[in-house]
Amino acid sequence: MAHLLGAERLHLEFPTRTVFDEVTLGIDEGDRIGVVGRNGDGKSTLLKLLAGRLEPDGGRVTVRRGIRIGMLDQADTVDPDATVAEAVVGGIEEHVWAGDAKVRDVIAGLLGDVPWHGRVGDLSGGQRRRVALAALLIGDWDVLFLDEPTNHLDVEGIAWLARHVKGRWSANDGALVVVTHDRWFLDEVCTATWEVHDRIIEPFEGGYAAYVLQRVERDRMAAASEAKRQNLMRKELAWLRRGAPARTSKPKFRIDAANELIENEPPVRNPVELNRLAVSRLGKDVVDLLDVSVEYPVRDAVPGAPATRTVLHELEWRIAPGERTGVLGVNGAGKSTLLKLVTGEVQPTTGRVKRGKTVKIAVLSQELAELAEWTEERVSAVVAAQRTSYVVGAGSKAVELTPGQLLERLGFTSQQLATPVKDLSGGQKRRLQLLLILLQEPNVLILDEPTNDLDTDMLAAIEDLLDAWPGTLLVVSHDRYLVERVTDRQVAILDGHLRDLPRGVDQYLELRRQQATDAAAAASSAASRQTGQASGPGAGAGDGAGTAASAPALTGADRRSAEKELSAIDRRLEKLQAQIAEQHEKLARHDQSDYVGLGALGDDLRSLEDSMAELETRWLEVSEQLEG
User: Fold this and answer.
1) Rounded CA gap, 272 and 430, in Å?
2) Would residue 357 count as lying in a domain?
3) Which domain of life, per UniProt (predicted)?
4) Quick check: 529 pLDDT over 80?
């Protein structure tokens, strides 16, 4: 594989710390690399160095001549005064970009709910982010650097982005380097993982799951090596301390060896640990939503149109003690409204909400409202203001901790304890917010997009904490990995109703695709009827379109033939679905380092998916004939 770009002996310092020291790495054609590490260790900085956005203090980055590099920053770089169309396609004529299948796919996948001729400055932060991503993806790049591309994307958007990136280049072309906390995306897209820590970059083969396995093995071997080293160190120190007079006669090489052993003590990486905290007692009754409907008034409603919009319709949900449920749905489907019904912030238009007497609800919100009153205070003072000591664990494993010790278990360093809350990073604020909520001892915990600003290590620590959570847990998140990891049941809000998902997120995506197909079929049928009406009685006999649209329903042999074809298409679609599922399994089992084999399997998969799309189109055509 051809070399695209590389970094040699990179060194970078900020005023307070060294970010990278003597880092050497390379990117080749066909590389699909995920970058993981703790917040603040330099993941985004690494992308900027490799993309040429930032100059290193030492070393160099070399790029092969003619290589086109594209990068998605975390910062908002889109001109707020431009329209969405100008920001995405620039001055390209509409007939040009509309004829490009890749451009149409990007616009449909990312900007379906964004006004095409709207002003970028009037959009929400999430919409602006998707506009920037769309503008990048329609370009032709040899190397793509994506910094948190899954932020502000829902489950469907993330699945679309994974499909787009996997099909963007052939197996041995192009290169992708992505920083994201979405572990499902890392597993789906990446064939290699770089871990950024302690001023170095450590490479691993495979996606997130493979990285975790290799890291566990690395840590196990390091622990065994450290145990041997510590034992040797104790012996050497004991030998060195056998009296001052004897020390001068000891062999100098033994003293030098012992000193070197002590100097080579590796830096301790921040432990991220938080054991089970106390929880208020929860009775048999939690929260019951009984035939609940919620309607909101429509702003600037058109005369004759409905004045209200129904978000939830005759919904019933009985939340059980200890229930662990993930709630899925597109933006605007009513997820936040559902949670606010549970907390009591929203009252139902019809139906009723019944709450147990012992229920104590806490919400980890997206707005960090819990920290608003503490912005000028030091981190340690915030926790100390709640209590002077805390007990974690239970029974014989119970340990009493000071506020500082508790914070250190949650990944804060001793220097950060004296930092004002306003100066913390997004991930640190998120950790502190979670801790303050847990110290209230709730028995119903609601997590509303809890993964924002958290790195993969912190996510794993929170998931470990939630595994032992004895209360009721409700999670709304676009992070598929988190939802499937910490909840036992998934539900979706579809057309205002709550739908159980026995097969989890996969079933939700299937239902959404079916909704899109049904909507397209309904729109096509409506257009056909409208055309038929327009060209019916008053149209000339030569108007073929009008004649076809207003043709009577099929009868006799023609109808039986159409029904037979529809039945055959159903069987072929079922067979193709099984083949596609089998092909996905083959890709997952295949050697991830065999790029040629993976490319062939990917080509086979795309061929099957194309066949399925053609059959679905034909199925719609035959169905319309039968309904006509």
Assistant:
1) 14
2) yes
3) Bacteria
4) no
307/324 Cα distance (integer angstroms): 36
Take residue 239 and report the two structure tokens written for it. 């030998």
Domain at 309, CATH number: 3.40.50.300
In three-state form (DSSP H/G/I as H, E/B as E, the rest C), the secondary structure along 128-177 is HHHHHHHHHHCCCCCEEEEECCCCCCCHHHHHHHHHHHHHHCCCCCCEEE
CA distances 543 to 67, 164, 335, 539, 568, Å, are 54, 41, 49, 7, 33
Residues 25-36, mean pLDDT to the nearest whole number: 94
* Counted domains in the chain: 4
CA distances from 487 to 340, 472, 473 (A): 20, 10, 8
Provide the b/e sequence for 74-98 (b: ≥16 CB within 10 Å). eeeebeeebebbbbbbeeeeeeebe
The count of C-alpha atoms lying within 13 angstroms of the C-alpha of 73, restricted to the half-sphere facing its C-beta, is 11
- What pLDDT score does 266 carry? 47
Same-domain pairing of 113 and 234? no
User: Are both 137 and 225 inside the same structural domain?
Assistant: no
Measured between alpha carbons, how far is 54 from 71 in angstroms, rounded to an integer? 13
Tell me: do 497 and 518 sit in the same domain: no
Of 441, 490, 488, which Cα lies nearest the Cα of 467?
A: 488
pLDDT > 90: percent of the chain: 25
Give the domain extent around 118.
Answer: 3-208
Q: Residue 278 is which amino acid?
A: A
- Over residues 244-254, the mean pLDDT reads 50
Q: How far apart are CA 439 and CA 280, in angstroms?
A: 11
Question: Rounded to an integer, what distance in angstroms lies between the CA atom of residue 373 and that of residue 367?
Answer: 13
